[in-house]
Amino acid sequence: MKITFLGTNGWFDTKAGNTTCALIETKGCYIALDAGGGFYKVKDMVKDARPVYLFLSHLHLDHIIGLHTLPIFKFRQGIDIYMPKGMKEYLKAFLNKPYTSAPEELATKIRLHEVDTERPAEFALRFARLLHSPVCYGFRFEIEGKIVTYCTDTGVCEELRSLAKGCDLLITECSFKPGEDLGKAAHLTPEAAAKIAKDSGVKKLALIHFDAGRYPDIDSRRIAEGAARKIFPETFAAFDGQEIDLT
């Protein structure tokens, strides 16, 4: 199983990276995680007719803005897009004129699903609502003997801990800088993310969704990585183009 980080920024694209997107490649399918500014890169990474799934955590623009690049995709198998309950009609409106090309104009067929009532049969999936506004889901994928948990945007909550428990890789956010007071914020510091990973028995932690205003460059991410590693050594600050293999 290979995971490639295609967008690791939150909020907006900068020289440090595009907004949030990652791709899990397995023997049986491709699973894209959110469709921020880095989503267009998926078009060059799908090499065959394996099913392509896209899971949207929520509909903030930094998680769906990349969908406007769908006209350059040429996937014969199409893309099945899964999202939280109640969001299908909103996404239908976004994936149409005047915002972007109409679905019937696309070479790649798009199929929309609400994950509460429909989900793929190829792998085990759990999901839960995270601490964020608006509704935002975290996902836990159990596939090919590995568990990958994806949770962004979120504050500290029991749902995050539950989805992360015992996973091989936790991909979660790092919007706030080290030492910032979270208060009731619906985001995480590197220390908060690391404590979740440690308490949940995670094997490896990937920090993504670095707030573009707080983290203007890769060096600032390294500082966050260092703060997290003091609590959970198996942490890395992800960057665009990074690939990891889960073996």
Average pLDDT, all residues: 97
User: The CATH topology, please?
Assistant: Metallo-beta-lactamase, Chain A
Shape: globular
Structural class: alpha/beta
**Structural Rg:** 17 Å
Distance between the termini: 7 Å
Helix content, binned percent: 10-25%
For the structure shown, list the relevant keywords.
247 residues, alpha/beta, Metallo-beta-lactamase, Chain A, seven-stranded mixed β-sheet, six-stranded mixed β-sheet, 4 helices
Summarize, please.
This protein is 15% helix and 27% strand. The chain has helices spanning 88-94, 158-164, 190-199, 218-229, and strands spanning 2-7, 9-10, 21-25, 30-33, 52-55, 79-83, 110-114, 124-129, 137-143, 146-151, 169-173, 205-208, 210-211, 235-237, 243-245. The chain is globular.
Q: What report would you give on this structure?
A:
With 247 residues, this protein is α/β, with parallel strands linked by helices. It has one domain (2-242): Metallo-beta-lactamase, Chain A (4-Layer Sandwich). It has four helices and 15 strands. It has a seven-stranded mixed sheet, with no helix packed on it. A six-stranded mixed sheet has the order 8-9-10-11-12-14, with helices on one face. α1 links the parallel β6 (79-83) and β7 (110-114). α3 packs parallel to α4 (218-229). The chain is globular, with a radius of gyration of 17 Å. The mean pLDDT is 97.
